[in-house]
Design a protein that fits this description.
By secondary structure, the protein is of the alpha+beta class. The chain contains three helices and four strands.
């Protein structure tokens, strides 16, 4: 399973984006977590105190435009940042540290999501 290591010089933060309930269940089991499925458009999963995160974006949300996608992913990136700070014992991250973390995670999630969406749309057109 491939997780993206977001930071190079800070304690590792691993995040993976999945779009299907099957991949979500597999990723959760891999981390020893309950394979809870959800009907939400997007949700973040992690174990408290762990810096490995799974972000699920429902593939049925393809009707969203790019702005809505980015908004959902930024929202989930905020949850990742919150969990990450707790995992590394950072109770009061500076505004800049918080913003850079959300920015880095959002960028990684957007890159992964829009690559997936492009492939998915191309597949549906053929």
């Amino acid at each position: 399973m491939k997780f993206i290591d977001v930071y190079e010089r800070l304690p590792s933060l691993y995040v993976r984006l999945v779009h299907s309930k099957k991949k979500l269940r597999r990723a959760l089991r891999h981390l020893g977590m309950n394979d809870e499925a959800t009907d939400a458009d997007a949700t973040t999963f992690y174990k408290e105190g762990d810096a490995t995160f799974i972000v699920y974006m429902n593939k049925n949300a393809l009707h969203h435009d790019a702005t809505e996608d980015i908004g959902l992913l930024a929202h989930e990136a905020t949850h990742v940042a919150q969990g990450y700070f707790r995992a590394i014992g950072e109770e009061f991250p500076s505004d800049e540290f918080y913003a850079y973390t959300v920015q880095a995670v959002t960028q990684e999630l957007c890159l992964s999501h829009f690559e997936w969406k492009k492939r998915r749309i191309a597949k549906n057109l053929s």
